[in-house]
Design brief:
Elements (H helix, E strand, L loop, with lengths): L7 H10 L4 H9 L15 H19 L1 E7 L6 E6 L15 E2 L4 H14 L9 H4 L12 H5 L15 H4 L9 H6 L18 H15 L3 H13 L5 E2 L15 E3 L1 H8 L15 E2 L3 E3 L9 H4 L1 E3 L1 H12 L6 H7 L3 E3 L4 E3 L4 E5 L2 E10 L2 E7 L6 E6 L8 H18 L12
Antiparallel strand pairs: 1-2, 1-14, 3-8, 4-8, 5-7, 6-7, 9-10, 10-11, 11-12, 12-13, 13-14
Length: 425
């Protein structure tokens, strides 16, 4: 079944703030079919791989613009696909190993680091935010570390505030500190008592990054390198500190609809003033190249750059128990209801129950970049779908073809037959 409709307030935040388009993903996974395989076709076969490649190209040609798909079924032979719309090749020839802004998938790394400190008894899940960040978070005496991790803190999100929106779109060049972002974070509307209701907010993870740094005496970037990327051999993964892409490694180019398309796309959800759109060079099809928009504000909430292979290495290590003791892994998998995610939200981890099986992971979205990365419950199998636009796949046809690609890749990852129906719409 698909996720139920969101409240108007939640729809506005999801549409305008590029938080991974998880409603679309949840619907895609929840509708994953268990249709019988065609004659001579198994869940993993050359025919299935070819169909996945066709779906990837169809998605690219109908609004996704470019996609990277990596399916690892645990047999040592991952399927890697990179497809793009023809005109985007003038900017960049997409490859499966390209670096990509993984957005809110970063939250799973931040949560892992927090739970490592919980295991070492430096941080308590029931510690108040006020204990660690006195005077910095409104109502922090009633908000716990656990509530930050599972988005039940009652904090709103800073992304819709008039002061921040120009930075999100790249129209304003400004470096934000986590403290400044927390200072402009509003209450939820209507106000919600801490611990009662799930409501996704990047502010929660800005606060967690500061708590980590205070508890350890190390910077977040140092912690990520010391405890995650270096031990796991994630050589293409790092925390972005500005808009620059390192010259030594290829990266995907991201795009968003121009101001006119964006206003039409969001009409009925949020009324954008005329001319409000993403900064960047104009590209064919009323698109804008957003690869140079600075994502550093997202920090502990979404600032990491990685590749499909690197991030699957992290997520499979996490889910197989290599990064956390059993007690903390159990805490991470303890979820609160989050129907807009297609299931439940744990501590930096999303659980989605589909007819094809249960998947765990996260999604991410930044201007020009959307990502879905999941494993099975044991961390044996994993799937990544990177898409070279975030808002662009909310248009009807693009959403339909992207959904078909995500569900086919997920079913193939889980060893189940791909849905037999071709995307329509």
């Amino acid at each position: 079944m698909s996720a139920p409709p969101l409240s108007r307030r939640h729809r506005i935040r999801r549409a305008a703030l590029t938080i991974a388009l998880t409603t679309c993903l949840g619907a895609a996974l929840a509708n994953c079919s268990e249709a019988e395989p065609a004659a001579g076709q198994s869940a993993a076969s050359p025919a299935a791989d070819a169909r996945l490649a066709r779906l990837a190209q169809q998605a690219a040609d109908t609004g996704s613009l470019g996609v990277i798909v990596r399916v690892d079924s645990g047999d040592g032979k991952p399927v890697e696909i990179a497809k793009q719309a023809a005109w985007t090749k003038d900017d960049h020839r997409l490859a499966a190993g390209d670096r990509f802004r993984v957005g809110s998938n970063t939250k799973t790394v931040t949560a892992t680091l927090v739970l490592q400190q919980v295991a070492e008894k430096r941080i308590g899940l029931d510690d108040t935010v006020e204990k660690w960040l006195p005077g910095l978070v409104r109502g922090g005496e009633h908000i716990t570390v656990r509530m930050l991790l599972n988005h039940t803190s009652g904090l709103g999100d800073f992304l819709l505030t008039p002061r921040f929106l120009p930075s999100l779109t790249g129209q304003e060049q400004r470096t934000w500190t986590p403290q400044e972002l927390l200072a402009i974070t509003p209450e939820q509307d209507p106000p919600t008592e801490p611990g009662k209701t799930y409501s996704y907010s990047n502010a929660n993870y800005e606060a967690l990054g500061l708590i980590l740094e205070k508890a350890t005496g190390s910077s977040l970037a140092e912690l990520i390198e010391q405890k995650i990327t270096r031990p796991l051999g994630m050589k293409d993964s790092f925390m972005a500190t500005d808009a620059a892409w390192p010259a030594a490694k290829r990266h995907a180019t991201g795009y968003e609809p121009d101001a006119k398309r964006l206003k039409a796309l969001l009409s009925g959800t949020v009324d954008l003033p005329e001319g409000v759109g993403f900064a960047g060079p104009e590209r064919p099809g009323d698109n804008v190249d957003t690869a140079a928009i600075d994502p550093s504000w997202s920090w502990a909430a979404g600032g990491m750059v990685s590749t499909a292979q690197d991030w699957q290495r992290f997520l499979t290590a996490l889910m197989s128990g290599r990064l956390l003791p059993e007690a903390q892994m159990k805490q991470m998998r303890t979820t609160v209801d989050a129907p807009e995610e297609g299931g439940g939200y744990g501590l930096g981890l999303i659980k989605v129950d589909t007819p094809c099986g249960t998947v765990w992971g996260h999604t991410g979205g930044l201007p020009g970049y959307s990502s879905e990365i999941y494993t099975d419950a044991t961390g044996t199998r994993s799937v990544t779908v990177f898409t070279m636009t975030n808002f662009g796949i909310k248009e009807k046809k693009a959403a339909t073809t992207n959904k078909a690609l995500v569900e086919a890749a997920t079913c193939q990852m889980l060893g189940k037959p791909q849905p037999s129906d071709s995307p329509t719409g």
